[in-house]
């Protein structure tokens, strides 16, 4: 189990008393942002014009489909699109998203009451947490964990408990059942994410059937983050949570155009499913924002309507990169389960270097190999001993990254423990 209460605090760590006084209670509950150290080191090297291969963030490096960009240009020039739009998304966009769901997943959604557009799925998730959770409430999620799934509820004033992933889905579901039965307060929300970031773990439809059964049994609601639902490999098709009968009675699914359509900078995503949750999200968003730039919404309609082939092609690109990276990492002594979906390889650090801890190892990857990777510990204690490597460079650059890693971390079974000369500290507490 992981709870936020035990974690350190960046604001406190800064030693700036005025900053501390200024910070809200909720800010004080947030731990240091673990990727910050890597980001700072990366920036410092970039300022010195050092060539860095950045495989840290899941930030797509390929272009948005041309047809979408052209539509944006056209729509941006029209005066009617330059005013405030509607907070929950224009009718045509929500209708197009409903068509997309029916076509791809066989799920029928009412665009009026069951779909809302968001400024990316992360914004939708965060505001949904504010709309449904508060002090005294409990959320459950899985570990390792994408940080906002843990801290979205915390920012809303609630507590989050992480249920560790088990080897088999059935064991995880049994644990979820047991936690929901025993915990007080009873969990109000269960946050799930498949295909999962960072592990690449995937599920089948039966998994969601059981989640819906448990949600009804224990009266919790589900938020399923489906950010990588359209980035699947080897013929695997990630099921939508909403495909399961009764799912919309107990939960919502978050989708995004950031990943599959290479539209991360555009900030457009969706929440779909349970009417009450959509209603509450719409209400709170009405206070916070005036909607997404209407030209972006119109271009997003084009993406959803015309770009099925583009997203399949992009998934094949990631599959090719996955093969290069997973195979190459294995040769370097990393432990890798080949992922069936997503934008990452989740790799166990070779035994000879594992004692460094994932943060020191990631800093050493940057320092010695000029390659940015994400430390597993950034996804909670359960991520320790691993690194997450994003498929955000082409195959040639990935091969170059592998060569640089090989030179920096020779495959030697006789290397024991830490090479402190290069790694700096072995500090795992950050
Ligand atoms: C699991 C997961 N959810 C959500 C997001 C954010 O997506 P968006 O750009 O739609 O806010 C990411 C991005 O890294 C992600 O990995």
Ordered list of secondary-structure elements with their pairings:
Blueprint: H1 10-13, H2 17-22, H3 25-28, H4 36-47, E1 53-54, H5 66-76, H6 91-105, E2 115-118, H7 121-132, E3 138-143, H8 147-155, E4 159-164, H9 169-182, E5 189-193, H10 205-218, E6 221-225, H11 247-250, E7 251-256, E8 269-273, H12 275-288, H13 294-306, H14 308-331, E9 335-336, E10 344-348, H15 351-354, H16 358-369, E11 371-372, E12 374-375, E13 386-390, H17 395-408, H18 420-423
Parallel strand pairs: 1-11, 3-4, 3-5, 5-6, 6-7
Antiparallel strand pairs: 2-8, 7-8, 9-10, 10-13, 12-13
Helix pairs in contact: 4-16, 5-13, 6-13, 7-8, 7-12, 9-10, 14-17
The structure holds pyridoxal-5'-phosphate.
Structure described in brief:
Helix content is 44%, strand content 13%. With 430 residues, the protein is of the alpha/beta class.
Unreliable stretches covering 5 or more consecutive residues? 1-8, 414-430
Q: Which CATH class of the largest domain is shown?
A: Alpha Beta
- Spatial order of the strands forming the largest sheet: 2-8-7-6-5-3-4
Distance from N terminus to C terminus (CA atoms, Å) equals: 19 Å
CATH fold-level name of the largest domain:
Aspartate Aminotransferase, domain 2
Count of individual beta strands: 13
CATH superfamily of the largest domain: Type I PLP-dependent aspartate aminotransferase-like (Major domain)
How many domains is the backbone divided into?
2
Summing up helix and strand content along with how strands pair, one would put the structural category as: alpha/beta
Give the CATH architecture of the largest domain: 3-Layer(aba) Sandwich
Overall geometric form: globular
> Helicity level, as a percent range?
40-55%
Helical run tally? 18
The amount of beta strand, in percent, is: 5-15%
Radius of gyration: 22 Å
């Amino acid at each position: 189990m992981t709870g936020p209460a035990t974690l350190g605090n960046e604001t406190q760590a800064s030693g700036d008393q005025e900053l501390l006084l200024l910070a809200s209670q909720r800010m004080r509950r947030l731990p240091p942002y673990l990727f910050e150290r890597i980001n700072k080191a990366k920036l410092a090297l970039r300022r010195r014009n050092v060539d860095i291969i950045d495989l840290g963030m899941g930030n797509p490096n390929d272009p948005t489909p041309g047809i979408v960009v052209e539509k944006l240009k056209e729509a941006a020039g029209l005066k009617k699109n330059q005013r405030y739009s509607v907070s929950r998304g224009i009718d045509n966009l929500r209708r197009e998203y409903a068509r997309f769901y029916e076509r791809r997943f066989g799920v029928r959604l009412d665009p009026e009451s069951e779909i809302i557009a968001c400024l990316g799925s992360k914004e939708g998730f965060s505001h949904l947490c504010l709309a449904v959770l508060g002090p005294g409430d409990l959320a459950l999620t899985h570990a390792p964990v994408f940080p906002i799934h843990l801290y979205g509820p915390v920012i809303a004033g609630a507590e989050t408990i992480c249920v560790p992933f088990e080897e088999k889905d059935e064991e995880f579901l049994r644990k979820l059942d047991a936690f929901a039965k025993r915990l007080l307060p009873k969990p109000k929300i269960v946050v799930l994410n498949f295909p999962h970031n960072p592990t690449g773990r995937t599920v089948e439809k039966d998994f969601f059937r059981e989640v819906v059964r448990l949600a009804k049994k224990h009266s919790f609601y589900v938020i399923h983050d489906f950010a990588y639902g359209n980035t699947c490999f080897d013929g695997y098709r990630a099921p939508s949570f909403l495909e399961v009968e009764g799912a919309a009675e107990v939960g919502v699914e978050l989708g995004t155009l950031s990943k599959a359509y290479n539209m991360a900078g555009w900030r457009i995503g969706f929440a779909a499913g349970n009417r009450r949750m959509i209603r509450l999200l719409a209400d709170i968003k009405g206070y916070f924002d005036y909607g997404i730039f209407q030209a972006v919404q119109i271009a997003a309609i084009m993406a959803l309507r015309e770009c099925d082939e583009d997203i399949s092609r992009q998934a094949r690109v990631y599959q090719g990169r996955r093969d290069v990276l997973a195979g190459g990492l294995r040769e370097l002594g990393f432990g890798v389960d080949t992922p069936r979906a997503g934008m990452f390889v989740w790799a166990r650090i070779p035994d000879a270097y594992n004692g460094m801890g994932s943060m020191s190892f990631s800093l050493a990857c940057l320092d010695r190999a000029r390659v940015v990777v994400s430390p597993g510990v950034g996804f909670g204690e359960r991520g320790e001993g691993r690194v997450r490597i994003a498929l955000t460079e082409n195959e040639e650059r990935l091969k170059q990254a592998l060569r640089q890693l090989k030179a920096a971390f020779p495959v030697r079974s006789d290397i024991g423990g830490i090479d402190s000369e290069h790694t700096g500290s072995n500090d795992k507490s950050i």
